[in-house]
Amino acid sequence: MIHVYAREVGSPIGPLVLTATEIGICGIEFGTWVDSLPSLEKWCRKTCGEFQLLLAPQGVSPHLDKAEQQLEAYFRGDSRLFDLDLDLRGTSFQVGVWQALTRIPYGETRSYKDIAGQVGSPKAVRAVGGANNRNPIPIIVPCHRVIGAGGQLVGYGGGLSIKTFLLQHEGLSTP
After folding, report:
1. What's the CA dihedral at 69, 73, 79, 82 to 10 degrees?
2. More exposed terminus of the chain, fewer Cβ within 10 Å: N or C?
3. Residue 84 falls within a domain, yes or no?
């Protein structure tokens, strides 16, 4: 049985629910615990098999404690990097895309085509878009830094207003 620990935290973009296994951070949901619970349970059933979802106050999950501290520092503007253990659960292609996203520097963007080239599948632009859309750990795995080939903002799980906020927070002007 996999234990998935969860904690709701506040942020300038609204409440976030952080999740972690014993391996590392495995998810961030936009919204409150109550709002996120159905999608969290669905994700756990799909990716973890037998699981137990547990609310975790400070001190119960070192991964959650560290992620909360690093997110607070990011939003204060005191930190540009995340140094966290991640538990990325997806297909090998998805995990490769998510790992490529973590290499996009703070304050920079890349196109879906750029990411497709980085993962060795230059023609898989649509598949990269699909993997980006399924990124379970937004902000920490910075899918908000991926934009359309023409520089336009395209979809974001938390909504384009949050994507715009995150890019502007990192010093980028947005269209």
Report:
1. 30
2. N
3. no
